[in-house]
Please model this.
Amino acid sequence: MGQAASELPLARDARAGSHAADAAVPGEALLAMTGICRRFPGVLALDQVDFDLRGGEVHVLFGENGAGKSTLINIIAGTFPADAGEMRYRGSALADLTPHRARVIGISPVFQEFSLVPDLTVEDNLFLGRERSTFGVLDRGAMRRQARATIAELGFDLQPERRVRELSRAHQQMVEITKALLTDVRLLILDEPTASLTEAEAGRLFALIARLKAAGVGIIYVSHRLAEIRRLADRITVLRDGRKITTVPAADVTDQALIELMTGRPVGALFPEIRSSPGEVAFAVEGLSLADGSVRDATLSVRAGEVVGIAGLVGCGKSELIRAAFGLEKIAAGTIRFRGRTLAKLSPRAALAAGICYFPSDRVAEGLALSRPVRENVSMASLDCAAFAFGPVLRRVEERRAVQKIAAKLRLRPPRIEQSVVALSGGNRQKVVLARAMTRPLNVFLFDEPTVGIDVGAKQEVYELIRELAEAGAAVVVVSSELPEVMNLSHRVYVMHRARVVAELAGADINEGRILAHFFAEAGHGA
Model:
């Protein structure tokens, strides 16, 4: 990734757009939006918002989930229009924008929720809607060469011929970023782009951002990770409840001030203190190996009333381990015990019946039925419980009453349980997933990346839920790629490396240095 700015794909591939040679000048006005309004049924998502972007800068959009960030970037990307206001791009008024036209004029988005076709290859997804052809015949050779060149330049570990459904979420994120940078780019939108990347992969992305800035590209960056914002941002615009609160130079505002601007209230400590009162072993994995080799001979245990973290690099097997414990991965060897009883023929239904609940990292693909209302999404895992059903008959009044009470407890916004989940922000979608844990008796909670893509305020609410569960006597497992999360929530930490559990840490040993040392240790050896 060491090429000069003039050698970037955006400047060298003029066939993809008619303006490739007309590069932006760093510092010039690239985008200006004034008085932008957008209303959805029952919700004013944007209310008279002003926003501007200059060439060669990173302008961060910062706000809680539901603040209006996604609505604003979708308007810029042409997904849907504003109801009122004006948008000017490179000095000209911009109207009737579509996603295709946006890409043609150099606006390229990378959304948090992927827009990939699972059954197509990486190469097919990269060129979908912009295929290369010669005399009406697809020029697969040219597409393969350009795909390989761009992937190599980005430093991503991607094979163009692999089908997207075979890729991990991290690799799917790489495909989305590659797709955005495959052709001429003047305005790049990055929505939580590092949520699934390792530190090394994120570092390569940050180096690329620096080169794009030098080439005059304007970048709108959406992130809740304050360390990233500090590293990248030139300016920060804070949105709250659909309104612009302020735009400030990044160097002129502290992290604490940013959080208080975002929430509109003073914010205390991010991580709660979770009292440790461990009881009997509630959940144990012994000698577990998976059929695909992603986990080998793993052993761990969790006691009632404690939080156990599992840390490791992307691909180490940490997510696959707890997926297997919920019956989602094929087990080749080993046992899973719940309160001393071996669980045979494990499946999600059997796991729920035993009192085990799993929260997936990919809430859109695995956690939610987006087109269905909040009520159904919350109650769907408990329809076999007497509180929700009388034999084959659904007790709708009781269902609505119970779900409404849970939505109020979790502060779902907006609190309408009959609206479709697709209309909710990322943080509120996560609350819907978490709400299922409150609809039936459960004793073991398996969290896989519980705060990915949600804001600081929503994170605090998730952490508070974890505290309440553990202090009420539940056994809680937290798999996370964010070390501060693992270190501050866990009473004990297991570290995984290359499919194996290589360390168990407790007390003062739970620190960044010790955990990172085990990340890179040879499997089976300490550090």
The radius of gyration is 24 Å. The first strand starts at residue 29 and ends at 40. Residues 1-21, 522-527 have pLDDT under 50 and may be disordered.
